[in-house]
Specification:
The structure is a single chain. This protein is α/β, with parallel strands linked by helices. The protein folds into 2 domains: about 1-45, no CATH class; about 55-295, TIM Barrel. The chain has 9 helices and 14 strands. The protein has helices spanning about 90-95, 105-110, 115-125, 145-155, 170-175, 190-200, 205-215, 235-250, 275-285; strands at about 1-5, 5-10, 15, 25, 35-40, 45, 55-60, 75-80, 130-135, 160-165, 180-185, 220-225, 255-260, 295. An 8-stranded mixed β-sheet has the order 7-8-9-10-11-12-13-14, covered by helices on one side. Strand 12 (about 220-225), helix 8 and strand 13 form a beta-alpha-beta unit. The chain is globular, with a radius of gyration of 19 Å.
């Protein structure tokens, strides 16, 4: 186990995690919501340090990042666990969508070989690709491992990427300053009700605030909205979101509109996002003054 970088010790050997905006208060012997942070005898430990679930190569456009090293391929790393509980997650097998860690997930996790930051960066260098991305699950929740990898990556001249839901705390994001190049953020909706129903958190305000902070810290920003029928496909919501991006991130910030597909763990009663809905959202973004709007 690897001791956590950001936590506060409380009474009765409880701890308060400072990595994501849930700020879980965790009793002795228990895990946080993400399931990969354990309170052992009053100290908080990361269970998944050096335990990737997925290693593969993707085009940078798959993230999607269209304005960051376009045409390159990046070494992509996914881990276990998540701080959201989105029922339609396409990576549910590794994000552990259930509130508690299932036996089969735990067995999968324990069987994984450990890969040190140096070993990972050596793999990236050997592959010949110019950068690496932490993706598939939420990278924030194994912050310590990603940060250690990024420190080595920058020494080797590699670019670095977070594909994130944006629920990281400001203090955790600041630890990544100078080491994280691209912050590809999900801006799922402007409505708190969406975040409550789909993600299991009270509000999306903190996501937007941290995305602005990432921009201020010098990170490249691109935003993604997965458009889900009946949940966040209202034209008024598109207008609010496009206006927010323009006013807070800048009119040159790329906005990616992705199609929902009911092929995974939940929301299977919904249809795929109609093409006309995506076209309408695209036009709303352009009419709002955004220069780069993409349907993907």
């Amino acid at each position: 186990m690897h001791e956590a970088a950001l936590y506060e010790k409380l009474d009765n050997k409880r701890v308060k995690c400072g990595v994501c905006q849930r700020r879980c208060v965790i009793a002795k012997g228990k895990r946080g919501v993400c399931q990969n942070r354990l309170n052992s005898a009053g100290k908080l430990y990361l269970l998944t340090y050096g335990k990737p679930a997925t290693l593969q190569v993707d085009s940078i456009e798959k993230k999607p990042l269209y304005h960051f090293y376009p045409g390159t391929a990046c070494f992509s790393i996914g881990g276990f666990g998540c701080n959201f509980r989105c029922p339609h997650c396409c990576n549910f097998w590794s994000t552990w969508g259930a509130p508690e860690l299932k036996d089969e997930n735990l067995a999968e996790f324990k069987s994984r070989p450990e890969i040190s930051p140096q070993e990972l960066i050596d793999k990236v260098k050997k592959s010949g690709f110019p950068g690496l991305a932490f993706t598939y699950n939420e990278p924030t929740i194994w912050l310590e491992y990603t940060l250690d990898c990024f420190k080595l990556a920058k020494k080797e001249g590699l670019y670095t990427v977070y594909v994130t839901n944006g629920f990281i705390t400001p203090e955790a994001l600041k630890l990544l300053k100078g080491y994280l190049d691209a912050f590809r953020a999900d801006i799922k909706s402007m409505d708190d009700g969406f975040y409550q129903k789909i993600c299991g958190v009270k509000s999306g305000k903190g996501v937007r605030e941290v995305t602005v902070l990432a921009k201020d810290l010098g990170m490249h920003i691109e935003c993604v909205t997965n458009v889900i029928p009946t949940y966040n496909d209202n034209p008024q919501m598109f207008e609010r979101l496009a206006r927010w991006i323009k006013e807070n991130l800048g009119l040159k910030t790329p906005w990616h509109l992705s199609r929902f597909s009911p092929n995974y763990n939940g929301l299977r009663d919904l249809p795929p996002t109609p093409t006309e809905t995506l076209k309408k959202a695209y036009q709303i973004g352009k009419d709002a003054g955004l220069e780069f709007v993409y349907v993907c």
